[in-house]
Amino acid sequence: MGKRSVVPFGPQHPVLPEPVHLDLVIEDEKIVEAVPSIGFVHRGLESLIAKKDYNEMVYVAERTCGICSFMHGMAYVESIESIMNVEVPDRAKFLRTIWAEMSRIHSHLLWLGLLADAFGYESLFYQCWRIRENVLDLIELSTGGRVIFSVNKVGGVIKDMDSDMLAHFLRELDKIEEEIREIQKTFLLDYSVETRLKGVGYLSKQQAHDLGCVGPFGRASGLPSDTRTRGYEAYPQIDFEPIVSEIGDSYARCECRILELYQSIDIIRQAIAKIPDGELSVQVKGNPDGEVFTRVEQPRGEAIYYVKGEGKANLNRLRIRTPTFANLPGLCETLKGADYADVPILILTIDPCISCTER
Amino acid sequence: MAKVKESPWVLHYDGSSCNGCDIEVLASLTPVYDAERFGVVNTGDPLQADILLITGGINTQNLSVVKQLYDQMPRPKVVVAVGTCACTGGIFKECYNILGGADKAVPVDIYVPGCAARPQSIIDGIVQAVELFQKRSDEHDAAVAAAKSGTQAK
């Protein structure tokens, strides 16, 4: 038994694009306990409901997080639509599904790049981000924005995609899929990568369930939780199965996310094949009166929106529970007993998004 | 110091941004945009950094962190505020926890607007920062040389 010491990790740290602080209690090189402290990115955007009306809040909700921005906006407008009983046109639902899955692809590629950087494969990091740029080009082509694309509104979407653009999407997605297959070889078959990921940060199915883990982090431990199966937007008309692995280590989390890339591409193909013609949005009149819980599956897992309105233009209450917040207890559990050198990789495997967490 | 212009090192800190500008800062350092062709290197160490990129506004908790990072950087240094939030507080300006733009904590030299700021404009901001940095380091060199010759004359 060595002497216990506390090593601070963050808030500014080379491996973290965002600030989070962890106090790591270590004995020799083993971690005994990890105590997270958050609040460096807290803005208090939920309180903006007092100053902005429910239509303007769409843009605030989208800026909860820059990576899953579209899905935050989608969850928010879906909440308002279900309070006000607005029936969104089918075409808008399919377009939302396509953009949501595009966001998932770009988020997972971003994460794969950061992981590659964490285990020291810099050119692999660059390859992932190069492929991600192709995805962003498609998003920019269809929406006009790269990371925050503001195409949602209460009652539908603002922009349409014509058949030429959808055909272009299919062609480009084929190329992107081909390129993902190339990088997949390194992530899943390379000996050095396996030694860094296999058996590192094990979390059992029971632990994942008890700690309330969500998203790919929970699914890699065998929790079959995927909110898309709840059937919002166009997902009921699309055939897919949640990707679940029973292994529960960092390698499984990496594998889950790579398989989800193919799944997302498949979902987009199905959505493009089935997309109906029609209106993009319906007119919405009046103010929301009532309360609702909405759950959507973001790249990092399940996000919950609670919205309450009292028939005024300003909402009464907005509460956002984001996936990283649900995964932090799981992260602290996997850190216990880990080597100090594995800390960056373990923090990355939950795909932390601090700005969502702290809002 | 004459050659610093060819390889400025950049330190990036996320104030309280929504992450959109952060991933665009990273995107401008990776292929396609590739700020490294100007010799820009992303570092995690404030002691070796020349240019500080701040994204997002300043809140009560990160105020001291930003100030500390700025103080740790060696002179001369240049600060670039990336994104509307870092310039003024942006959409979050009215939030109870936001004090304002990056200039509430440290003196900002270059403002890059945009929500989220595009990689092209971020790179433009960095290039302008490099020129300013070169000017400041030349002045610094001249001051040091003047001080030296002054002591020799005595």
Please characterize this protein's 3D structure.
The complex is a heterodimer of chains A (359) and B (154). The mean pLDDT of chain A is 86. The radius of gyration of chain A is 21 Å and the shape is globular. Chain A has a single domain, classed as Orthogonal Bundle (Cytochrome-c3 Hydrogenase, chain B). Chain A contains twelve helices and eight strands. The longest helix of chain A is centred in the N-terminal third of the chain and has 29 residues, at 90-118. In chain A, β7 and β8 form a beta hairpin. Chain A is α+β, with helices and mostly antiparallel strands. In chain A, α2 runs antiparallel to α3 and α5 packs antiparallel against α9. Chain A has a three-stranded antiparallel sheet. Chain A has a three-stranded antiparallel sheet with strand order 6-7-8. A two-stranded antiparallel ribbon of chain A has the order 4-5. With 154 residues, chain B is of the alpha/beta class. Chain B has a single domain, classed as Rossmann fold (3-Layer(aba) Sandwich). Chain B has helices spanning 20-29, 63-72, 84-88, 119-153; strands spanning 9-14, 41-43, 51-55, 58-59, 78-82, 98-100, 110-112. In chain B, α1 crosses α4 (119-153). The longest helix of chain B has 35 residues, at 119-153. The mean pLDDT of chain B is 83. The interface between A and B is large, with 43 and 39 residues.
